[in-house]
Amino acid sequence: MIAGADPLFAHGVTGVVILIVLIKVVVGFAVWMGAVTMMIWFERKAISDMQSRIGPQRWGPFGLLQTLADGIKLFFKEDLVPAEADRFVFKLAPYLSLVPALVTFAIVPLGGTLHIAGHAVQLQVANPPMGILVMLAMSGISVYGVMLAGWASGSKYPMISSVRASAQMISYEAALGITVVTVILVSHSLTTHGIVLAQGQGIWHWNVIRLGVVPFVIFWMAITAELNRPPFDVVEAESELVGGFNTEYSSIRFALFYMAEFMNTITMSAIIVTLFFGGPAGWVPPVAHLRWVFPILWFLAKTGVFAFCYVWFRAALPRLRYDQVMDLGWKRLIPLSLGWMLIVAGFLVAPGWGFVMAAAVVLASVVLAVAFERGASRVTGPESVLEPVGRRPLPEDRLRALTDREEG
Amino acid sequence: MSATAYALPSIVVFVTAALLIVVGALGVLAVRNPVHAALSLILTLFGVAVAFIAQSADFLAAVQVIVYAGAIVVIFLFVIMFLGIGRSRHDHVEPLVGQRPLAALGVAVTVGGLIALLASSHWVTGATSVSGSPLAKGTGNVRQLGTAVFTTYLYAFEATAALLVIAVVGAVVLARRERVTEEAE
Q: Could you tell me if the ipTM is greater than 0.95?
């Protein structure tokens, strides 16, 4: 029963089936590790183009082997553990970042279904019955990597970073989960395979259009916050926190965090494609031998677009302030995703209900807006200044005098 | 898919899950550092999730990890970190006098009661799955659960939801600081 929905196990688990699973795992892992090194190279190269720099160019053509060289360098560097560190947790944390990133990728459908030796082989490493919930579970677990790394370092700035990380990632998980629910509602399936199949009939069936774009935008923002990538990278804000949670890490342990970050970037691009852009769905030429290649190419192309967008975000967008990150998550994204889910559910029952729900959501939004307005008006002191913890904010004129003196 | 055909894998899965649960639970009790104790708790929760999967309760397993490991223990850790405990323990003095003997008594009574209960109840053996009627492939699991929650147990479900909302609102009211009065002082 553990096998669940995968047709590969429909006729029992034989030696051939185990072999196919092993091949899927090994090929998936190898391709993916290659993709991670390429992603790191791509990000550095693209960002240096956007910033009028040259970027990596020394190792291999176009600097392609730069990541490999960096990896080898990091392997041979001294591995430091701070004196104040909690040694066990300090060493555990990188793996808690890496493993969820790995596991999430296993549920992404990379292509259609192949038929090998009488077995239907889905081109994804695993297709568990709880499907997309694995993604949510793993994004929940990946909080630990960041959190414990900061705590175990026994150092101030990583500690602040890890407290930020835990608050931020938990906050955005709610909006993330609710948008995934809207996708599940229209797909009638929890499995990633089912979600992709439900979008297979053409571009108008892709969830991004069928759900009315809003859930996709919410999901994209929430997942970016989950990844702690710019513009939501207050966790590693180098201008405030030295280097964030991984300040005290060096050598291969630092490399593991670095890898996990880029793994997550690729994986989440792939998850966006799976949930909202039909995964491997796309035009396939009527040639028998190309029938299985094209879905993979479509998948890679779509994922590449989102991977590029992440790089673009990093180059183009300024970092949000911490209170802005929290306000966006709790006051905007969660109510919006909840309201949109109700509207989608209403339209799935009957169009009439859809309009009733839409009216109810508009009404609730007005109430919420009034509540926010009244709540905001309670705050004393200048709105433009963050209230210092444990102290009253300075009056605006005194503050202005202080900043003017510093500038002058 | 009969129970006998998967006997060995089932046993391996069960033993692994049981070990995870027991080791984690003992770790929560034995470990001095609160952060390590929280990590042991996660181990237990994972063991329970594995046990759920072995019982074909995939949805419960996922929710177990998402809600308990992914949110609740994170909040525990959040509090532990914020309060800065875990580095050194200064609270060796027992706040309640005589709580240890009382705890031992309580454990003895509970264990005795459980054993008495087990001795007098009927045991169902031989079934690897306790999830009711044989489940179809795919999401039948979730469908059954959803149907049960939104039909048979609707009132209990809504009451729980209301309770949680009340708890959240209560927490906000208790935790909120009146800033206007601060200004007035």
A: no
